[in-house]
Amino acid sequence: MRSIWKGHIRFLLVAIPIRVYNAIEASERIQFNQLHRDDFGPIGYDKRCKKCGQIVTNDQITKGYQYESDRYAIVEPDEIAKIKIKTTKAIDIIGFVDTSEIPTTFFDSPYYLGPDGAVADKPFALLRQVLKETGKIGLAKVVLRDREDLVAVFPLENGIVLQKLRYPAEIRKVAEVPDVEKDVKLDKKELALATTLVEQMVTSFADVDTVDHYHEALRQLIDSKIKGKKVAEFEKEEDLPRLDIMTALKKSLQASSRKPMVKAEPAATKKKAALTLVKAKPAAAKKRKVG
To answer: In angstroms, what is the C-alpha Rg of the chain?
Structure first.
């Protein structure tokens, strides 16, 4: 894993040399190129002015902020360069807060931190352990790619996560969602059934099916295309019947009590279990005959 940035993480006079690593595996994403259907040539994109129709080069392009219809405040690259924040190569922790204080909507891109050299091993481990024992999250500022980012720093297994946070001004209020604040009167029986259903479905994250089945099907389709095989068709999902809330809750409770929400067994495990049952049958039959 290659680091994308290196510097220090520091709070007050404590400075720990660290490296930053991307936590997202971009190679897992399936991406398509647009091709000309006649000869399968890649489709290019010209930078064309929508006003005069001319194709322009990079040196003919400037930036503008639209503040009214067809009116822009022109901002040149050298003007933007003047307001760039000085890069300090440090993740400066402002303070430590409880996890519950950061709304989940604030969390953005995750990165991993790692110690930079043997000299950083002990202080890095110390910070990780302190965060674990206190249950606190570090709030910090760092300049990445000429922008000052607000970030959260917290432990994960044997490492530390650096998670970009969105600024409060970027987040819309939940109250702005239409009809979300309607005062709806709830039926006590429906509430009790729904609570029971939730309690029956309690599981652990490790036992939940977290496989991206669309990605798997897409990969199977591409592999079949590469090998020249016929593409398999996938079953169409049936439409769910429309039920009133009480009937839906009762049916859900019945289904929940019969079928636990756990991962499907691997095919190899199922085959092994089937073989065990087959071997066990003759012995059981023999026992009945003796009796």
So the answer is: 29
DSSP string, 79-103: HHHHTPPPP-SEEEEEEEEEGGGS-
**Higher pLDDT residue, 30 or 100?**
100
pLDDT on residue 76:
84
Q: Which helix (H) or strand (E) holds 68?
A: strand 63-68
The answer to whether 139 and 96 are in contact (CB under 8 A) is yes
Helix axes 188-200, 245-258, angle to 10 degrees: 20
Domain boundaries, the chain: 3-25+84-170, 188-269
- CA neighbor of 113 nearest in space, from 98, 129, 128: 128
- The two most distant CA atoms of the chain are separated, in Å, by 97
| CATH of range 3-25+84-170; options 1.10.150.130, 1.10.630.10, 2.40.290.10, 3.40.50.2000 | 2.40.290.10
Classify each residue of 103-131 as buried b or exposed e, where b means 16 or more C-beta atoms within 10 Å of its C-beta. Answer: eeebeeeebbbebbeeebeebbeebbeeb
Q: Is the whole-model pTM more than 0.85?
A: no
- Are residues 171 and 105 in contact, defined by beta-carbon separation less than 8 angstroms? yes
3 vs 120: CA distance, rounded Å: 16
Report DSSP letters for 5-33, one per residue.
Answer: EEEEEEETTEEEEEEEEE-S-GGGS----
Are 112 and 159 a contacting pair, CB within 8 Å? yes
pLDDT value at residue 171 = 93
pLDDT digits (tens, 9 = 90+) for 145-198: 667 899 999 999 999 999 999 999 999 998 888 888 788 898 999 899 989 988
φ, ψ at 250 (rounded to 5°): -65, -45
Closest CA to 11 of 153, 161, 147, 156: 153
CA 67 to chain centre: 34
If one counts every other C-beta atom within 10 angstroms of the C-beta of residue 92, the result is: 18
